[in-house]
Amino acid sequence: DVKVTQSSRYLVKRTGEKVFLECVQDMDHENMFWYRQDPGLGLRLIYFSYDVKMKEKGDIPEGYSVSREKKERFSLILESASTNQTSMYLCASTKSGTGEAFFGQGTRLTVV
Amino acid sequence: RKEVEQDPGPFNVPEGATVAFNCTYSNSASQSFFWYRQDCRKEPKLLMSVYSSGNEDGRFTAQLNRASQYISLLIRDSKLSDSATYLCVVNTNAGKSTFGDGTTLTVKP
Description:
The complex is a heterodimer of chains A (112) and B (109).
Chain A: E1 4-6, E2 10-13, E3 19-25, E4 31-38, E5 42-49, E6 56-57, E7 64-70, E8 73-78, E9 87-94, E10 102-103, E11 107-111
Parallel strand pairs in A: 2-11
Antiparallel strand pairs in A: 1-3, 3-8, 4-5, 4-9, 5-6, 7-8, 9-10, 9-11
Chain B: E1 4-6, E2 11-14, E3 19-25, E4 32-38, E5 45-50, E6 55-57, E7 60-65, E8 70-75, E9 84-91, E10 97-99, E11 103-108
Parallel strand pairs in B: 2-11
Antiparallel strand pairs in B: 1-3, 3-8, 4-5, 4-9, 6-7, 7-8, 9-10, 9-11
């Protein structure tokens, strides 16, 4: 059974903290993505990566950075968390050429 | 203008009804197209891929019109269990996936 695993289901962090969200996939997929999902705004792409050490900005990269040191792992970093980053964060991966995205279970982050 | 736009919904239909969702995309270089289903508080999961020739899976039919840059999803004989949010997804050849905002369907007894 294919799997994308996010390190936490729920997180509560304080404003100004540095936050790491981890995502691991076991399908040897080339492409990995980070989205945030907010009511009324749908899924918005933050960053994606199509290879190790490669990254591309999505539609809303401000306030975020990413790291892809290994093919199976894609990390999202909030350098200094702010309350407007309270959201559901979803990681996904795809194999190049097929396009089907597999999602992690999501991390609900609350910044207080 | 958003890259991928969907019918805003919500759609509230009785059991047994036929319902159709449309989705338009702006990038003519888009390569592949999908419909995903997302249940409340769950992650999106693939419902079906969309091909130019159209494809059918049971009560679900998906169509792609490249000339007009839209895709559609038709659900026949709606069931209560079809209640969910349906997301259209468009991929470029660079591997980027862009999601629509989703259309919420509620099927009522």
